[in-house]
Design a protein that fits this description.
Keywords: Signal. This protein is of the alpha/beta class. The protein has 11 helices and 10 strands. Strands 5, 6, 7, 8, 9 and 10 form a 6-stranded mixed sheet that branches. Strands 2-1-3-4 form a 4-stranded parallel sheet, with helices on both faces. It is globular and about 55 Å long.
Length: about 270
């Protein structure tokens, strides 16, 4: 009788663990989606947001919209058990309604540092009940940053960097302090040439010449670099004169997910070749 009870209890515990691992999850923020995939949980995802579209493993999943412009209907229509969002997600009123509907909503801090990335890995791994894989992933990311520190020591000088977003006819927007761009520059051991301004601001030729960056990084741009170099706002800078200008769109530098270290290493590889 005791053996039968033990066997039944074991089967029940196994079933409970299986059901817990089979939860339907929506991830909002490309970094969380990438981490979930890296943890081997892509099969549990039932929906993602627009910032996750670049991740091949989830390209066929329903899109719940841009993470700052979510809707209650878009999220609840997928009947998820759990929704993982970062602190960048919104509107807050939508998140409150989703939580009130009884869905497990977890808001994870989006700190643009190595510690912030590792904390996100821990949070996602805990929610998906994959602690061992989480620890393994964190060790891999930490190893990338050991390599990053070694490359920082190889810089011939402290690089001052202008990080700009191409807004087409509206010109360039420059990344100041408190932005994802500044976070990635700090992680790469680079100085933000516009760390004296908050957020993103329009770039003027006068400001660019005054800052005179050593390096220019361009994102969100379909314009060829040769044409960008001719833009009056930057053409006389040290960076353009020495051809240290780089389109970083393919690196997914601003994702702050599990591949952030590899993205920075790719940037450093280009920089050290200049």
């Amino acid at each position: 009788m005791r053996k039968t009870f033990s066997a039944a209890l074991g089967a029940l515990l196994l079933l409970s663990a299986t059901l817990a691992h089979a939860q339907k999850v929506v991830t909002v923020d490309g970094s969380l989606t990438e981490i979930a995939v890296a943890l081997g949980a892509a099969d549990r995802l039932v929906g993602v947001d627009t910032t996750s579209a670049w991740i091949p493993e989830v390209s066929e999943l329903p899109d719940v919209g841009y993470m700052r412009m979510l809707s209650v209907e878009g999220l609840l229509s997928l009947t998820p058990d759990t929704i993982l969002v970062t602190s960048d997600a919104g509107p807050l009123s939508v998140l409150e309604q989703v939580s009130q509907a009884g869905v497990d909503l977890e808001i994870i801090e989006n700190d643009y540092t190595l510690a912030g990335v590792l904390n996100k890995v821990s949070a996602v791994a805990d929610q998906l009940q994959l602690p061992a894989k989480g620890e393994s992933l964190k060790k891999s990311i930490a190893a990338d940053f050991n390599d990053i520190e070694q490359r920082i020591a190889q810089y011939p000088k402290p690089y001052r960097v202008l990080f700009i977003m191409d807004s087409g006819e509206r010109g360039f927007m420059v990344a100041g302090n408190g932005t994802r761009a500044e976070g990635i520059l700090k992680m790469a051991g680079l100085q933000n040439a516009f760390n004296n301004i908050p957020g993103y601001k329009p770039l003027t030729p006068e400001a660019a010449i005054m800052a005179n960056p050593d390096v220019i990084l361009v994102f969100h741009s379909q314009t060829p670099l040769e044409k960008i170099k001719q833009n009056p706002a930057i053409q006389y800078t040290e960076a353009v004169q020495h051809d240290r200008i780089y389109n970083v769109d393919h690196l997914n530098l601003l994702n702050f997910g599990s591949s952030v270290g590899q993205s920075i290493l790719a940037l450093q590889e280009w920089l050290l070749r200049q």
